């Protein structure tokens, strides 16, 4: 005995504006589709070995076209919605027999929609939306490649509002139904779907305003879509294009023109912008963003703080607050500042002396951060070591060890350094890896002091640990 088919005569959700005759026509059409798919005499005998429908839908296509041609646009949308619900209702039956039958329902409804579109009864937009929504993205049946090629050809003929709806249907309604584990064959089937989405979001195609594209992708892109590498890369590129626009909202000044700390509109005596910016308790984090990692995603106004600290007297414009103990973004920010200074040093000519101002400013910032409990010594040295390991900058290593020496020699009574010894050792090993040529200048106090910074650091640490 074969499994009984689902009940197609289910009440459909429609408001009171639809006439009872329209409701009857929809139910009759659903019964006709059921008869074509499930109740032929041949399929009763060969149900388990075949899913070929032949050309049994010819009469049904003509009947459907005549019926939908007399409807208003709102009724057409409701009818197609009911057909989509019928396809998904059958496809959700997980037995092997129902999977084949569900694919046949999808094929019949697709034929009706494409025939009506061919005759000009329904719009390209409505046809494409219906074809998209009838696909089984649970991957229980195969993705119809020819259907999605037809959808791809229809995309340039639709206005941007229709394109936006199609993008929502694919991302929010369909890709969200994908399983989190896909076989290589299933990934290959989804390439045509990925091509359609790539065609929509490509800025060169100019199918939608780029800002609308970005907002739709960021709002509705499910995690399953990240399994499609080309789509993920394309969306990341779109996000990068809008990053300069976001950076324009931050204070960006040049120290040699006009320091921000001296600007008339910068009033450091009030902590309003710090309390509601830097130290805000619940920072806004964009869901499923595809931007590369930036601390500013979780710390507002971080770029503003970074620019102020780099400028003259920027550090002196802040008031230390007990609420800001051990802010993790300070560790990353100061470490990046040190690596930027090391990169500038690497670009100098061989005999060019290292500029003193920037490194002296960084030393003052680090001492201020440690004393104000804005920097965690252990985490700071760990982050700095990881960045130097990636960048491989070594020319300014004496300057970095001078910073470590100042922290160890000046703040041993202010912060606990016993837990940071291993991080300092690892940082030293990254800076002085391999054969190191030690060079000092007894007639140059600054160079000579930095030459002895590493040795003095170990002497102090050995005394403290012992």
TrEMBL record:
Coiled coil, from the record: none
One of the GO biological process terms: positive regulation of gene expression
Pfam families: Med23 (PF11573)
InterPro entries documented for this protein: Mediator_Med23
Record GO cellular component, one term: transcription regulator complex
Main location, first listed in the record: nucleus
Compartments reported by the entry: Nucleus
Assigned keywords, A-Z: Nucleus, Transcription, Transcription regulation
Family recorded in the similarity comment: Belongs to the Mediator complex subunit 23 family.
Protein name as catalogued: Mediator of RNA polymerase II transcription subunit 23
Species this protein is from: Caenorhabditis brenneri
Protein's gene: Cbn-sur-2
């Amino acid at each position: 005995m074969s499994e009984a088919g689902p009940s197609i005569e289910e009440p459909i959700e429609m408001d009171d504006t639809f006439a009872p005759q329209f409701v009857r026509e929809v139910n009759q059409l659903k019964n006709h589709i059921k008869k074509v798919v499930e109740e032929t005499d041949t399929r009763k005998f060969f149900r388990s070995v075949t899913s070929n429908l032949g050309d049994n839908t010819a009469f049904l296509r003509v009947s459907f076209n005549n019926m939908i041609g007399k409807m208003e646009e709102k009724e057409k949308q409701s009818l197609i919605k009911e057909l989509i619900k019928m396809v998904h209702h059958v496809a959700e039956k997980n037995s092997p027999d129902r999977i084949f039958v569900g694919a046949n329902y999808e094929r019949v409804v697709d034929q009706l929609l494409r025939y009506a579109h061919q005759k000009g009864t329904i719009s390209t937009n409505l046809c494409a939306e219906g074809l998209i929504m009838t696909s089984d993205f649970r991957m229980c049946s195969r993705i119809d490649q020819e259907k999605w090629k037809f959808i791809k050809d229809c995309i340039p003929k639709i206005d941007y509002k229709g394109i936006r709806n199609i993008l929502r249907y694919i991302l929010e309604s369909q890709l969200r139904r994908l399983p989190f584990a896909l076989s290589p064959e299933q990934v290959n089937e989804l390439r045509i779907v990925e091509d359609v989405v790539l065609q929509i979001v490509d800025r060169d195609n100019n199918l939608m305003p780029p800002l609308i594209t970005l907002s739709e992708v960021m709002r509705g892109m499910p995690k399953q879509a990240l399994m499609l590498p080309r789509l993920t890369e394309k969306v990341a590129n779109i996000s990068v294009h809008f990053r300069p626009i976001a950076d324009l909202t931050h204070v960006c000044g040049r120290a040699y023109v006009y320091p921000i700390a001296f600007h008339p509109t910068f009033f450091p005596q009030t902590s309003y912008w710090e309390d509601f910016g830097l130290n805000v308790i619940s920072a806004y984090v964009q869901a499923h963003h595809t931007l590369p990692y930036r601390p500013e995603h979780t710390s507002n106004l971080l770029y503003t703080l970074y620019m102020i600290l780099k400028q003259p007297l920027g550090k002196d414009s802040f008031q230390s607050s007990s609420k800001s103990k051990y802010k993790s973004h300070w560790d990353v920010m100061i470490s990046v500042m040190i690596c930027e200074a090391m990169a500038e040093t690497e670009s100098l000519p061989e005999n060019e002396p290292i500029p003193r101002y920037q490194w002296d400013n960084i030393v003052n910032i680090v001492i201020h951060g440690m004393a104000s409990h804005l920097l965690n010594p252990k985490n700071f040295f760990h982050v700095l070591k990881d960045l130097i390991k990636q960048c491989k900058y070594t020319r300014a290593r004496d300057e970095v060890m001078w910073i470590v020496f100042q922290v160890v020699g000046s703040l041993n009574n202010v912060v606990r350094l016993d837990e940071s010894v291993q991080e300092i050792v690892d940082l030293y090993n990254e800076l002085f890896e391999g054969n190191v040529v030690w060079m000092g200048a007894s007639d140059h106090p600054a160079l000579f002091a930095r030459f002895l910074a590493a040795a003095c650091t170990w002497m102090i640490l050995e005394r403290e640990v012992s």
